[in-house]
């Protein structure tokens, strides 16, 4: 069976790879303006603009979680991290597109990916100077692993349900 790349799969691959570049820009530059431009481009090209906009409350909740972790001393920033809100928007918009295949995984596998991938992103972010981990590498990593083992499967369920309200065709992919 030959692999065919249609417009939809091209969008998903581009979105998946694009988020890695977007994440790097967010963590290195730590300014909201370049992120806003890229988010606007996403909205221009997305096949599900209405559904993506409906996910903004989930991005705000993720941003709120990181702010709580900052307040509790798990994370630290040199200044108010408004860029982090843009990072959360980009991440939440990546879940149904570039990471949409996670919806077909068993929740335990998604939890394992969250437990590894979530802390990894923060640890790399710390190496790049975007965030500090006041509790140290191991304690912070363990706390973030626990949080992300719960958070990623929850986000996948919420996104699936959320999109079924706003953009039912997106859920069937």
Number of helices: 8
Number of domains: 1
Which overall shape is indicated by the principal axes computed on the Cα atoms?
A: globular
Major sheet? none
Mean pLDDT value: 87
Give the tally of β-strands: 0
Strand percentage, roughly? under 5%
Structural classification: mainly alpha
* Secondary structure: helix percent: over 70%
Rg, alpha carbons: 16 Å
Distance between termini? 20 Å
SSE run? HHHHHHHH
pLDDT < 50 stretches: 1-6
InterPro entries: DUF2878
Protein name: DUF2878 domain-containing protein
Keywords: Membrane, Transmembrane, Transmembrane helix
Organism: Pseudaeromonas paramecii
Structural overview:
Pfam families: DUF2878 (PF11086). It comes from Pseudaeromonas paramecii. This is DUF2878 domain-containing protein. This protein is mainly α and 173 residues long. It has one domain. Helices cover 73% and strands 0% of the residues.
Quick structural summary:
By secondary structure, the protein is mostly helical. It is built from 8 helices and no strands.
């Amino acid at each position: 069976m030959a692999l065919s790349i249609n417009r939809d799969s091209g969008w998903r691959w581009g979105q998946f790879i694009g988020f890695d570049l977007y994440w790097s820009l967010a963590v290195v530059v730590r300014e909201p303006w370049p992120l806003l431009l890229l988010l606007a481009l996403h909205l221009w090209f997305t096949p599900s603009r209405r559904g993506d906009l409906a996910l903004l409350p989930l991005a705000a909740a993720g941003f709120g979680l990181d702010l709580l972790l900052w307040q509790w001393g798990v994370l630290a920033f040199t200044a108010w991290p408004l860029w982090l809100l843009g990072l959360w928007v980009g991440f939440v918009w990546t879940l149904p597109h570039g990471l949409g295949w996670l919806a077909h995984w068993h929740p335990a596998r998604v939890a394992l990916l969250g437990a590894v991938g979530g802390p990894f992103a923060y640890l790399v972010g710390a190496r790049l100077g975007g965030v500090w981990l006041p509790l140290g590498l191991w304690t912070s990593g363990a706390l973030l692993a626990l949080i992300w083992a719960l958070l990623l499967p929850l986000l996948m369920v919420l996104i699936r349900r959320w999109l079924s309200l706003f953009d039912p065709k997106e859920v069937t992919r």
